[in-house]
UniProtKB/TrEMBL annotation, chain A:
UniProt protein name: ABC transporter ATP-binding protein
Residues in ABC transporter domain copies: 2-229
Species: Carboxylicivirga linearis
Record Gene3D superfamilies: P-loop containing nucleotide triphosphate hydrolases
Molecular function per GO: ATP binding
From TrEMBL, chain B:
Major location category of this protein: membrane
Transmembrane segments: 21-43, 280-302, 336-353, 373-396, 417-439, 678-696, 721-748, 763-783
UniProt keyword Nucleotidyltransferase, yes or no: no
Subcellular location: Cell membrane
One protein family per Pfam: FtsX
Record's keyword terms, sorted: Cell membrane, Membrane, Transmembrane, Transmembrane helix
Topology in the lipid bilayer: Multi-pass membrane protein
Domain ABC3 transporter permease C-terminal: 286-389, 683-793
Name of the protein in question: ABC transporter permease
Length: 232, 800
C-alpha cells in the first residue's frame, strides 16, 4: 500500500542544509498496524506528514496505493485525503467552533455525502463511541480522552483505508491512552484499517504488529512485534 | 447555511478581533457610503427626466470685457435663443426657455400665504423637461396669459381643489394668476427647481420690459433643447453660428470688439450640476475612496492577524479533505457575515447622524435613494466584499499544513507593514486635506470683505404699504439700540445683476458693472464704505440719480474715456438708467462671497430717503431694503425689535429681519459643510488607523515576545526596547507620509484652482501634519509596547 523509496527531506538554514530524513525506505502493506518510535526531532512527524501527503519529500519516490504520490496534483491529493486517509493528532486538533457532531461530520461534507446520510453515519459512530449525550457540546467542554475519541471518530467516519496517528496518546494520561490504543487495535483488526502511529510509549507501541525505530532521519530497526517479544 | 452557522460561531471566538474589525469596517463603510452616495447623487441630477440623455442646456460663452482673454461660461441665454434654435438649427427637436422671477410669497383668496420658486415658461416646457401632470394640461396652461400650474406639494398645502384658485403675489400686488393644473413636484435632485410655472405670455405683469424674444442681452433665460436621437451637439455649432449671424449681427459685433465675443454651447442636462462643483466632486470622491480603502486595508490586516491564530484549523480542514477552494469559501462566508454586520452597523450609524448630515449636505438623505445612486453603491460594496475576502481567503488556504501543525507563526511581517503603511498614507493624506481646507475656510470667512457686516440688519420692504414707511423709519430711529437707519435696493453679500456703461457718444458699451441701484444718504456709512474721492452722500449738493463708482470703475473709465483729470463731476450713461453725474469714488469691496467673487466694478446711485418713500408710495411692488445699524454691544434683541416695528406695516406680520453678518457667513455654507465632511472623514480614518496600529502592535508583541524577553535578559532596558520598536515603526511611517502628503498636495492644488483667494500651500503645513502623525504613531506604540516590554521576561518565555 505504501512504498517509500530513498526519501530525502531537508531544511535549508542560512549556512547549511539539515536533513530530517535521509535515504529513507519503507514498505507497508494493507491491514498492517505499524508503530514508529524514536527520540524527539528524529523526523517521525515529518515522515508521517509525507505519508499523509501533507508534506512533500525533497527527493525520492513515494507510491501510495500504486500511485506516484510525489507526482500527484493537489487536486488528486485532496481526493486521497477525502477517501483513503484519516489523521489523528496529539493535540486533537478539533475545530473549536464546531460541536462534536459537526466535527465528526466535516470530512463527510467535503466528500460530498448527502446531509441525511451524514447525520445517520455520525449518529452511528457516536453510538459506537458512547458519545451520543455529548454530541452538541463544543470541544472545550470535553476531557482530553473524550476529545481524542472525537478526533478518532472524525478520522474514521469517511471509512479511510489508512489511519495516521501522531502521538495520539501524548496528551492523555495512561488509562485514557490505553482506551485509545484498544480502540485503534480494534479498528485495525475488525475493519482492516491500516494504521501507522507515532508513539514514545513502549507499551503502546506493542499494540501494533510492527515497530520501526528512527534516529536522525534514518531507520535504525524495523521488526515485527512478535520477534521483539521473543527477544524479551 | 452550514458555512454561515460556523462563521457566526467564529465571530464569538476569542482572538478574532471581531468587535474591532466590525467597528472599523462599519465606520469606514458608513462614511464611505455617505460620501460616495453624495457624489453619485450629484451625478444623478436631472436624470429623472425621460430621455434625459437627449436633453441639453444652452450655455452662453462670452467675453465680458475687451481686455479679458478668457470666456465666461454660464447656463443662461437671451430669450430668443431657445425658440431660435428650434426654428433654425436642424437636429433640435424641441426647445424651451424658462425665466425665474424668484422665490416669492403669494396668497390665495382666503388670505393663506405660500412660498415657492416662480418661473415663467413657454408652452414647450414639458416637451423638453416633462413632469407628470396630476391635473390639467401643461401646454394649454402655458399658452394662456395669467395662467399657472403648481407643484403637487403646494397643491397639497392648499387643500383639495387647488385648480381654479386665484393667487396673488406679495411682491406684485394686483397681479393675479389662475391655477390651471398641478404637476408632480420636482425631486430634490433637480438642478433647476420651481414650484409654480407661469405662462410666458404673462411676462409683462412681472417685468417692465419683455425680453422673451430678445436676441442679445437680458440673458436670464434657462434654455433647454431636446435633440433628435443620435445627434451630436458639437455638430450643431455651425448652424448655431449661422443663427447668430442672422439675428445678432455677430460678425459686426466681433469686429467692434476685436475677436470672438459670444457663442453658444450645449451641455447635457445631466452634467449641468456636476460641472458646477467639479472641484468638490474630486475631493469628495478621493476622500470616500481613501476612507474605504483604509478601512479595507485595516480589515484585512486584522483578519490576517486573527487567521494566524487559526492556522492550525486551516490544516485540520485540509486533513479532512477540504480543498483550497473550500477554505476560501469558509473565509468568504466569514467576511460576508462580517460585512453584513458592519453594513448594518454602518446603517445604524447613518440613521443616527442623519439629521446632522442632512443639515450638512442640505438635502434629505432619502433623495439619494434613487437608482443612479444605489446601483453604483451596490457595485462598490460588492467589490469591497470581494477584496475583503479574497486576500484573507488566499492567505488562509495557502498556509502550509505541516508548518501549521508545528506552532505556526508568521515569520515575516512585511505584508503587515505594507497594509499598515497604506493606512498611514490615508491618514496623512486626509489630515493634510483637512488642515488646508480648514485654513482655507477660515481665510475666507475672516477675510476683510471691504464693508461692515457686524451689527447690520436688514429687512425687505416687500408688502409694506408705502404710506407707512415714514412712520417705520421714525419708529426704528427711536429704538435705543439703533445707531443708524438707511435704505438701499441691494446688499453686498449677494451677486448683483449687471448693467453696461456706455461710451460717451452712447454708441457702444464699455464694460459691464455690478449695479447696486439706488441707496440713500445713510447706506454707505452704515456699511462703512468710505468715499475716498469726491463727496460723501451726507454732504449737500448731491441729487437723486447721482452716481458713486468703485475705484476699479474709475480706472476703467479714465482709460476708456481718456479722462486724465479724474472722474468726479463727469457724466456717464449706464443701461437701465438716465445719464448721471459721478459724485464720488469708493474702494472696491467683495461682492458675494470670496469663493466666487464678482470681480466687476460696481456703482451706487443716490436716491434720498424721501425719494425712496415717494417711489414706494407710487409703485407698491417696488422692493428695497431697510438697513439698521446697531449700537455696538446692543445687538442682543435688536432683530426682534426691528421685526416688531416693521410688522406694524405688514398685514400678515411676517417681516423677516436678517443679519448681514449671518448672510455673509451663509455664503460660505457650502465650504463649511465641506470642511465638516472632511473633519468627519478624518475622525473615521484616524479611528481606523489607530485600531489598525493597535492591532499591529499587539500581534507584533506576541510574535516577538520571546525576542523581547531575551533582549531584556541580556540587559536591554525597557526604554531601549520601546525606542527601538518605535523607531522601527517610524521607518515605515516616513515613506507613507511622503506619499500621503504628495497625494494631498496634488489633490489640493486641483481643488484650489476654483478659488480666487488661495490659501498658499506652505511647507510648514505639511511638516506639522507629518509631525502630528509621527507623534500619534509614537504615542500609541509607546503605550502598547511599554505594557508588554515591562512584563517579566521569565513569564514571557514561559508563555512560549
Ligand atoms: N519547517 C521546518 N523548518 C526547519 N526545521 C524543521 C521544520 N520542520 C521540522 N524541522 C526539523 O525537522 C526535525 C524533525 O522534526 P519532526 O517534527 O519530524 O520530529 P519528531 O521526530 O516528530 O519529534 P517529536 O518527537 O518531538 O515530535 C526537527 O529537528 C525539526 O527541527
Ligand atoms: Mg513529532
Amino acid at each position: 500500500m505504501i512504498q517509500l523509496n530513498d526519501i530525502f527531506k531537508y531544511y535549508d538554514n542560512k549556512f547549511q542544509r539539515s536533513y530530517v530524513l535521509k535515504d529513507f525506505c519503507l514498505n507497508i502493506n494493507e491491514g498492517e498496524f505499524v508503530s514508529i518510535m524514536g527520540p524527539s526531532g528524529a523526523g517521525k512527524s515529518t515522515l508521517l506528514n509525507i505519508i499523509g501527503m501533507l508534506d512533500v519529500a525533497d527527493d525520492g519516490e513515494y507510491f501510495f496505493m500504486d500511485q506516484p504520490a510525489h507526482k500527484l496534483s493537489d487536486k488528486k491529493k485532496v481526493e486521497f485525503h477525502r477517501n483513503y486517509v484519516g489523521f489523528i493528532f496529539q493535540a486533537f486538533h478539533l475545530i473549536d467552533e464546531m460541536t462534536v457532531a459537526e466535527n465528526i461530520e466535516t470530512p463527510l461534507i467535503y466528500k460530498g455525502v448527502k446531509s441525511k446520510e451524514r447525520k445517520a453515519m455520525v449518529a452511528d459512530l457516536l453510538d459506537r463511541f458512547n458519545m451520543v449525550a455529548k454530541k452538541d457540546l463544543f470541544p472545550a467542554q470535553l476531557s482530553g480522552g473524550q476529545q481524542q475519541l472525537v478526533g478518532i471518530a472524525r478520522a474514521i467516519i469517511s471509512k479511510p483505508k489508512l489511519l495516521l496517528a501522531d502521538e495520539p496518546t501524548g496528551n492523555l494520561h495512561s488509562d485514557q491512552g490505553k482506551e485509545i490504543m484498544k480502540l485503534l487495535k480494534k479498528l485495525n483488526e475488525e475493519e482492516g484499517i491500516t494504521i501507522i502511529q507515532v508513539t514514545h510509549n513502549e507499551e503502546f507501541a506493542q499494540y501494533g504488529k510492527r515497530i520501526i525505530r528512527i534516529e536522525d532521519g534514518m531507520k535504525k530497526s524495523d521488526l515485527p512485534v512478535a520477534t521483539l517479544l521473543e527477544q524479551v | 447555511m452550514y458555512l454561515l452557522k460556523i462563521a457566526f460561531r467564529n465571530l464569538f471566538q476569542k482572538q478574532q478581533h471581531s468587535i474591532t474589525r466590525i467597528i472599523s469596517l462599519a465606520a469606514g463603510l458608513a462614511f464611505g457610503i455617505l460620501m460616495l452616495s453624495e457624489v453619485f447623487y450629484y451625478y444623478s441630477f436631472d436624470s429623472f427626466y425621460p430621455e434625459a440623455s437627449r436633453v441639453y442646456v444652452v450655455q452662453s460663452n462670452a467675453r465680458l470685457s475687451d481686455d479679458n482673454a478668457e470666456m465666461d461660461v454660464w447656463d443662461r441665454t437671451s430669450g430668443a435663443i431657445a425658440p431660435g434654435m428650434k426654428d433654425e438649427v436642424p437636429g433640435v427637436e424641441v426647445a424651451t426657455r424658462l425665466n425665474s422671477i424668484g422665490n416669492l410669497i403669494f396668497y390665495t383668496a382666503d388670505q393663506k400665504s405660500y412660498k415657492g420658486r416662480c418661473v415663467l415658461a413657454d408652452e414647450y416646457v414639458y416637451d423638453v423637461i416633462p413632469r407628470n401632470m396630476l391635473v390639467g394640461n401643461a401646454k394649454e396652461a402655458m399658452l394662456k396669459p395669467s395662467n399657472c400650474i403648481i407643484s403637487s406639494k403646494i397643491a397639497a398645502s392648499m387643500g383639495d381643489d387647488a385648480v381654479g384658485k386665484v393667487i396673488e403675489f406679495r411682491k406684485y400686488p394686483g397681479v393675479q394668476l389662475t391655477v390651471a393644473g398641478v404637476f408632480e413636484a420636482l425631486p430634490e435632485n433637480s438642478n433647476y427647481k420651481y414650484d409654480v410655472l407661469i405662462s410666458m405670455s404673462s411676462i409683462a405683469q412681472f417685468f417692465d420690459w419683455d425680453g422673451s424674444t430678445n436676441w442679445l442681452g437680458n440673458d436670464r433665460y434657462y434654455s433647454c433643447v431636446k435633440l433628435d436621437a443620435g445627434v451630436n451637439p458639437k455638430d450643431l455649432a455651425p448652424a448655431i453660428r449661422k443663427m447668430q449671424e442672422k439675428h445678432q449681427d455677430i460678425i459686426k459685433l466681433e469686429q467692434d470688439h476685436g475677436g470672438e465675443l459670444l457663442k453658444y454651447t450645449l451641455i447635457p442636462i445631466q452634467k449641468v450640476y456636476v460641472s458646477r462643483i467639479q472641484g468638490m466632486v474630486i475631493i469628495l470622491s478621493t476622500i470616500a475612496l481613501a476612507v474605504l480603502f483604509v478601512s479595507l486595508m485595516n480589515y484585512v490586516l486584522l483578519t490576517f492577524s486573527s487567521l494566524i491564530n487559526r492556522a492550525k484549523s486551516s490544516a485540520v480542514y485540509k486533513t479532512c479533505g477540504a480543498t483550497a477552494n473550500d477554505l476560501k469559501k469558509i473565509i468568504f462566508t466569514e467576511s460576508f457575515v462580517f460585512f453584513v454586520l458592519a453594513l448594518s452597523a454602518a446603517l445604524v450609524i447613518l440613521m443616527a447622524v442623519k439629521p446632522l448630515v442632512e443639515n450638512l449636505v442640505a438635502h434629505s438623505l432619502e433623495a439619494t435613494l434613487n437608482q443612479y445612486v444605489l446601483w453604483p453603491i451596490v457595485g462598490v460594496l460588492i467589490i469591497f466584499v470581494l477584496l475583503s475576502s479574497y486576500f484573507p481567503g488566499r492567505f488562509f488556504a495557502n498556509i502550509p499544513v505541516s508548518a501549521a501543525f508545528r506552532n505556526y507563526k508568521q515569520k515575516k511581517n512585511k505584508w503587515k507593514l505594507g497594509l499598515l503603511s497604506f493606512q498611514f498614507i490615508g491618514a496623512s493624506f486626509i489630515l493634510t486635506l483637512l488642515v488646508v481646507v480648514t485654513l482655507q475656510y477660515h481665510k475666507m470667512i475672516n477675510a476683510d470683505h471691504g464693508y461692515r457686516s457686524q451689527g447690520v440688519y436688514y429687512c425687505s420692504t416687500n408688502g409694506i404699504d408705502g404710506s407707512k414707511l415714514n412712520m417705520i423709519m421714525n419708529e426704528l430711529r427711536k429704538l435705543p439700540e439703533v445707531e443708524k437707519v438707511g435704505m438701499g435696493e441691494e446688499v453686498p453679500v449677494y451677486q448683483q445683476s449687471g448693467n453696461n456703461i456706455y461710451s460717451q457718444d452712447g454708441k457702444k458699451d464699455l464694460f459691464n458693472i455690478a449695479d447696486f441701484y439706488s441707496v440713500d444718504e445713510n447706506y454707505l456709512s452704515i456699511l462703512d464704505i468710505d468715499v475716498t474721492n469726491g463727496r460723501d452722500f451726507s454732504t449737500s449738493g448731491i441729487n437723486n440719480n447721482d452716481v458713486f463708482i468703485s475705484k476699479k470703475c474709475a480706472e476703467l473709465l479714465k482709460i476708456h474715456n481718456h479722462w486724465e483729470d479724474g472722474v468726479i463731476g463727469k457724466e456717464i450713461k449706464v443701461s437701465e438708467h438716465q445719464r448721471s453725474t459721478i459724485k464720488g469714488v469708493f474702494d472696491d469691496f467683495i461682492i458675494g462671497s470670496i469663493v466666487e467673487p464678482d470681480k466687476r466694478p460696481s456703482v451706487f446711485f443716490y436716491q434720498s430717503e424721501e425719494g425712496f418713500i415717494r417711489q414706494k408710495e407710487k409703485y407698491p411692488s417696488m422692493e428695497f431694503k431697510l438697513l439698521v445699524q446697531a449700537k455696538t454691544g446692543m445687538e442682543a434683541n435688536i432683530r426682534n425689535k426691528i421685526k416688531q416695528v416693521v410688522d406694524m406695516a405688514l398685514p400678515n406680520k411676517d417681516a423677516v429681519v436678517r443679519s448681514l453678518e449671518d448672510e455673509q457667513f451663509n455664503g460660505y455654507q457650502a465650504q463649511l459643510s465641506f470642511r465638516n465632511g472632511m473633519l468627519a472623514g478624518n475622525v473615521v480614518v484616524f479611528l481606523i488607523t489607530i485600531i489598525g496600529l493597535i492591532g499591529y502592535t499587539s500581534t507584533e508583541t506576541t510574535r516577538r515576545s520571546k525576542e523581547l524577553a531575551i533582549r531584556r535578559i541580556s540587559g536591554a532596558s525597557i526604554s531601549d526596547l520601546i525606542v527601538n520598536f518605535i523607531l522601527e515603526l517610524q521607518y515605515l511611517v516616513l515613506p507613507s507620509l511622503l506619499i500621503g502628503l504628495g497625494l494631498a498636495w496634488f489633490i489640493l492644488t486641483k481643488w484650489m484652482e476654483s478659488f480666487a483667494q488661495k490659501m498658499p500651500l506652505q511647507w510648514w503645513i505639511f511638516l506639522l501634519c507629518s509631525i502630528g502623525i509621527l507623534l500619534m504613531v509614537a504615542i500609541i506604540a509607546m503605550i502598547k509596547y511599554s505594557r508588554i516590554a515591562s512584563r517579566n521576561p521569565v513569564e514571557s518565555l514561559r508563555y512560549e
